[in-house]
Amino acid sequence: MSDDLREHPSKVADDRTSLTSFLDYQRATLAMKCQGLSDEQLKRKALATSGLTLLGLVRHAAEVERGWFRLVLGGEPVSALWPRVDGGAGEWRVEDADADEAFAAWRAACEGSRTVTRGIESLDARVEFKGEVISLRYVLTHMIEEYARHNGHADLLREAIDGTVGE
After folding, report:
1. Cα dihedral sign for 74, 80, 86, 89?
2. Average pLDDT, stretch 94-121?
3. Residue ranges of domains in the chain, CATH in brackets
């Protein structure tokens, strides 16, 4: 697992640059945790009591990116890439998933999120979504938290798969 995928955020940047670069850093961390693994390894569950997999995390990240940036901030109607199965979110069902397709969808979702973000003038710009007022600042901060939490899961999954540890 190589850290060459990540660019460390500036320690003196303005708010917008800090938030967007920390989000990109977290995105790159997820990619790094998946680096060099086979499709079978990406689908491997670390615990018998959990359905969590690295590929499921990638697919979930794609759905979350599309939901917050395209749907909430962009007002664009989006449907799930992986529809619900038996009442559960489809992105977590990876048994028959195609890893290349999932990574392509995730990369496209991240680029779409960057495009939406560039099109919004201010971190304090607000939209109304389902009766709530939401700012770009909130979405960026929430997405950093979302990735950071799931990257902790990715740490544990990667260690269980091949013993690789590290930030």
Report:
1. negative
2. 97
3. 15-162 (1.20.120.450)
